[in-house]
Amino acid sequence: NARMQYGDVAATLANIDKMQPLQPLSEEAHKNAVVSWGQGVKGWGIDAAVCKPIYHWAAGLPRLLLESHSKFSGTMSLANGSVKAVHRCFGEFQKRASSLYEIRPEWFPYAVSCLLISSTKLKVSNPDNRIPINPDWKKFLGVSWGEGGTFRQAAGHSIGSYNSKDELFVVPPIIFSDDVMKSLMVEDCGNGKMKKVQHTLILPSQLHPYFTEAVAEQLGRSSPTERGKQFEKPFLYAVYARYLLAYWGNTDSKWVPLTQVFEGAFQQQQEDVMKGYEVNLSGGVHVALTELLYSNAVPNAITYFGSSAHHDAYIYCRTVDDGSGVVWEGAVPLQLRHGRPKSYDELKPQLMTIRVPKLGKQKKSDEGTKAPPAPQPEPVRLLLSVNHKQRDPIRDEEKIVMIDADKMSSIAWLWLLAPGEQ
């Protein structure tokens, strides 16, 4: 309670409380809101080409959606300036959004976890649940939160908002740029001295490809092949983010259940297949440009080869028996599919892998030294077929598990943005 006075006039008692961000709007509600907000305002509106990107950048938060109609670069707003406005206005809009939802350095561990949870659409059943944080970052926490910070507290600090209907904690990606991330990576060591956090693990732009001004300028101009490439790495970083969150929640072992990493992204009838696996991605994401064979997959990490390889990527897994004995350990392939899903006949070759040939003693003949034998295909134990939207499992084929990318990453909307598409 507070008593407000204006000169000799005392105002009535008022209850003052911290307001949390308003609930996110749906895409349809956003379109309706634009009409409502603009009643009687000359020149108000939103260009169809930027409506969807603005919605996803702002995560549907009304304050940021409304802010996109502000005049940037003098006379142009991001909302009704067409795709051309992105080039001129995106950077200013991003800075303005970050200033509206300012994050303090002492909130860094919780803010990063909230971003990862939001970006990967991990379910949050209760806003009073504790936020899992990197144990190595606990020393950065300020006194305002201390141990055991909750999603309700995060919402109170305007880091994001809790969507009770969908059980999601939503952080607008536009407020959390790489520059913001780097500005938070400091520790107060006392006596006014600051120390930088050495390893970020994941940058925001690695989860959201249209996070940088240079890339945002290409919005809607990319070919289907280029859009596919823009999707692949961010999805793998989403897998890595899910792994980190699972590990931070229980640091007893670096091996976590595969079902926990892909929670919500596979169909229930394939859960029994996934249950038999654990995954260790503690080594992070590795991008390989040469030697793109199964045997070149990096242990305890994600290895990305790209579409030119037999398999696009690998994650390092193992199976254990009931007595916790390791039965098998090795790489599980991911096939990252954009556009039309592959048929079973097209996926069948992916059920075999290629290794580096085992070289024995080379035999010599009149023709000289013989070349080493060609790599021999071997069956894979499991294939994760990643599609940008849900696809039913293939009947009678348990080795292929269908993964719905839209259920665990925030970049599936990019598929809808090709030249001439809305």
List the defining traits of the structure above:
8-stranded mixed β-sheet, 422 residues, globular, Bodo-specific multi-copy gene family, putative, disordered N terminus, alpha+beta
Short summary of the structure?
The protein is α+β, with helices and mostly antiparallel strands and 422 residues long.
Please explain how this structure is put together:
Residues 356-379 are annotated as: Disordered. This is Bodo-specific multi-copy gene family, putative. The structure is a single chain. The chain is of the alpha+beta class. The protein has a domain at 256-357 and 373-416. Helices cover 27% and strands 17% of the residues. α5 (108-119) crosses α10. The protein is globular and about 75 Å long. It starts with a strand and ends in an 18-residue tail after the last strand. Residues 1-7 have low confidence and may be disordered.
